[in-house]
Amino acid sequence: MALADKYYTIGVLGKSFGVIELMAHQAKWELRDLAKASGLPKGTLQRILLTLCELGFVSQDGKGGAYSLTLKFFKLGQRIASNNSLVEKARPACRQLMEKVNETVNLCVAQNFDMVVMAQQVSWQILRLDSIIGSSFPIYPSASGKVHCAFLEESELLKFLNELREARPELTTDDINRFCAELAVIRREGVGFDCEEIFTGVRCVAAPIFDYTGNLVATIGCSVPTVRITEESSALLIREVIQTAAAISMSIGAPRREFMPTTRTMLHCPVRG
């Protein structure tokens, strides 16, 4: 059932949030382009935009100029993240992990087809990959996304894969089969990797965080420039990420899980585009 068909919803509110989500995909929007992309009449759209401008959520480049979202959304996102109990419990562990490995640490949760960065501890390295709190990257084929998918219920995983094939028609059956085979390994070992599959020159390792029900609620991982990875640093990163994920899980009441030790490394995993 469409949102507009539900008697208890407020139509203009739904349209307004639809406009906001659409605007987040690029920095600036001309009114005509936004009207075409949203499917809303220009008059309706302009009233929504003017209201959002009055509230400080949208700005306009002078009279008749382009519209853009403001950092008020970013500030709200930061407040939401800071009030999240998982983030609060995980933040000290993220800090300790960063200090042990001196690499940037990300705490992420899944949303639709993306992993969203909820908390981050930035390393002291000059060469590093930083993200903004609230920014996102694709579930497929990121390390955090693979870990998320590995612990989905079978029906949820099948639903995700079907939707992924629709959204990414270039993916072949072999691509999906390789992905599923990797998920099976992650379930056994409790750790996932991406080897320059999201960003060229960057490799990542991630592990699952579970809640008191045993369900996965987040992932924690490190992003590392490939040029800095050695056998020793790979072993340290994998060990510490797994241990940190387990410690956070226990702090929120998760039942203890045992995983098989991994023989994989960040140095020798295959690079796939």
Describe this structure in words.
The structure is a single chain. By secondary structure, this protein is α+β, with helices and mostly antiparallel strands. The chain folds into two domains: 11-74, Winged helix-like DNA-binding domain superfamily/Winged helix DNA-binding domain (Arc Repressor Mutant, subunit A); 84-252, Beta-Lactamase (2-Layer Sandwich), CATH 3.30.450.40. It has nine helices and eight strands. The chain has helices at 11-23, 31-38, 42-55, 72-83, 85-101, 143-150, 154-167, 173-189, 231-251; strands at residues 58-60, 67-69, 104-111, 114-121, 136-138, 192-195, 202-210, 216-225. The strands form two sheets. A six-stranded antiparallel beta sheet has the order 5-4-3-8-7-6. The chain is globular and about 60 Å long. The model has no long low-confidence stretch (mean pLDDT 90).
Topology:
Blueprint: H1 11-23, H2 31-38, H3 42-55, E1 58-60, E2 67-69, H4 72-83, H5 85-101, E3 104-111, E4 114-121, E5 136-138, H6 143-150, H7 154-167, H8 173-189, E6 192-195, E7 202-210, E8 216-225, H9 231-251
Antiparallel strand pairs: 1-2, 3-4, 3-8, 4-5, 6-7, 7-8
Helix pairs in contact: 5-9, 6-8
Could you list some keywords that capture this structure?
273 residues; alpha+beta; Arc Repressor Mutant, subunit A; Beta-Lactamase; six-stranded antiparallel sheet; two-stranded antiparallel sheet; globular
